[in-house]
Amino acid sequence: MAHDQPPKFVIQRDEQRSDESPSSDNTLGAHAADRHHEDRGQQLDPENSSDNEEKGGHDGPPQPVGFLDKRLKTDFDGRLPPFTGATPLVGPMITQTTEMMLSAPDPHLGYETMDPAVFDNDPLLVRQAVFDWKAYAAIIVMPNATAMLQQAVDQANTTYDPLGACQIVYVEARDETTYLNYILPQLSALETQMTSEFGQMWTRMVLQNTSIPRENLQRVPQALNPALGFSQFNLRPFRPAVMTPAVTIGLIYLIILSFFSFSFYLPIHMKFLSTEGHPPLKFPLFIVWRWTATLVAYFFFSLSYSLISLAFQIPFANHSAATTAVANNPEPYGKGTFVVYWAINYVGMIALGLACENVAMVIGQPWTAMWLIFWVITNVTTSFYSLDLAPKFYYWVSTVPELPVYPDPKPKNTKSDFAGTSFQGYAWPLHNIVEASRSTLFQLHSRIGLNFGVLFAWCFINTALFPLCCWTLRCKTMREQQKKKQ
Hints:
Layout: E1 10-13, E2 26-29, H1 36-39, E3 65-66, H2 90-103, E4 113-114, H3 123-131, E5 137-141, H4 145-155, E6 166-170, H5 176-208, H6 214-219, E7 230-234, H7 243-247, H8 252-271, H9 283-311, H10 337-363, H11 368-381, H12 429-442, H13 448-485
Parallel strand pairs: 1-4, 6-7
Antiparallel strand pairs: 1-2, 1-3, 2-5, 5-6
Helix pairs in contact: 8-9, 8-10, 8-11, 9-10, 10-11, 10-12, 10-13, 12-13
């Protein structure tokens, strides 16, 4: 996969917060996937996700988040009261580290520092931005990360937890392959580098400060090593594993079934035009019969395909969850999820199948085999892998909106302009089937209206072309019959 357009991260920096309303220090938006969140015992159930939210506070303002626009790069670390007199350490080091990565010649993730005012100084809005696909991930340096660390060594605060300093937020179910193969390894490397470099710098500073009693360091060893940590919040883990065929390779069978239905049923359809034992069906009625019979066949094909997912015990009746909470396999439609899933497969099969019907009637054998190869490959390449990492040739149809550019500073009480902005839209049928299926089975950021709209557009266009293709097939058949008579 090409790396000419790396995934983007957001960095948010602000280590200021009051004791009553913590704000976030730095937010690094990253295209990252990580399962450490569950490993560290922070996994939440959909129904209890709001109870165990976070260490280190989610009430304060987050800052930079990495996106596709580098014009929003601002450092707010140490600029807001009551911490304007403090010297932040965590936020600046993360920012400098990511800037060094950006300047390196090796393939790397994209990072961007953003003004926390874009998110109304609310860390949960950073989570919402990641959930809404504005960035693949975000690294949030919590509001007083440096201040709490200094307090831990100065006052021997034994409750200090290094994992409360920074957060990494991502949505694995959006594209588990990209997260695990490209984003997670580099994020893990960033974590290791940050923990190592900051630990060395911080330990040296503390040991050189003779005013800090050594008894304090003995009581809070975690404030020296590791001193800094990252809590992972995987908002939508990709599980159970049996989901994999339902949103990837299994969908190829929608194309296969719809393609071969043409050759299966064509001999039956042609009997209606023969004069053996009955008058032939008028051609306009023949078109209506063929179109109706094809859609009825797709109805039962898609139901059979959907029931296979049910037979493999894919959950279709889970409750929904908050978009900013960590939840395993929540579903936005509850007990109606299976019906929506079936509808996606049915409309998708019509979009894929009518195109196959039209092309098969026009080009005929043996060229239909070449069409099947083209149709499968182009749909798979634009559906099963992240197009953010692919050359733009594979976008087919895409729209990438510009991020809002605010004056300095952004006016207060201005709502974030990220809500409602579409990230990208692709026109190939299978891409929209995959996206709609994922949003239905994992309660991801939903564009199901757009997905159904694209699929219905394919249905309407192919339906409009269907009579013309039937007429073409009729003409070809009549010419062949005349040649046989001669």
